[in-house]
Amino acid sequence: MVKTQTSVYDSSTIEASTYDYTTKDLFVVFKHATYLYSNVNVDDYEQFRNAESQGRALNQFIKKYSYQKLENA
């Protein structure tokens, strides 16, 4: 069983993401900082991961979740 999945993106703002299937935590690495989005639904994560534009998908599927800034780049 896959417990985490990391994806790297060709995006102007988002470098990568890691999703933890057991805790539903989504770590998004932006060019300027890393953010943790909590309790992200698997379907929303997959929509984000598979989108043509991660920036637009972040606004549509992920920003509704609580988050915290973890570190600056």
Described by its quaternary structure, the protein is single chain
Task: Tell me the β content.
Answer: 35-45%
Q: Count the beta strands.
A: 5
User: Helices and strands: which structural class?
Assistant: alpha+beta
Could you outline the blueprint of secondary structure elements for this entry?
Layout: E1 4-8, E2 14-20, E3 25-30, E4 33-37, H1 42-50, H2 54-62, E5 67-72
Helix pairs in contact: 1-2
Task: Give structural attributes.
73 residues, alpha+beta, 25% helix
Structure commentary:
The chain is an alpha+beta fold and about 70 residues long. The protein contains two helices and five strands. It has helices at about 40-50, 55-60, and strands at about 5-10, 15-20, 25-30, 35, 65-70. A five-stranded antiparallel sheet has the order 1-2-3-4-5, covered by helices on one side. Strand 1 (about 5-10) and strand 2 (about 15-20) form a beta hairpin. Helix 1 (about 40-50) runs antiparallel to helix 2. It is globular. The model has no long low-confidence stretch (mean pLDDT about 95).
Short structural description:
With 73 residues, this protein is α+β, with helices and mostly antiparallel strands.
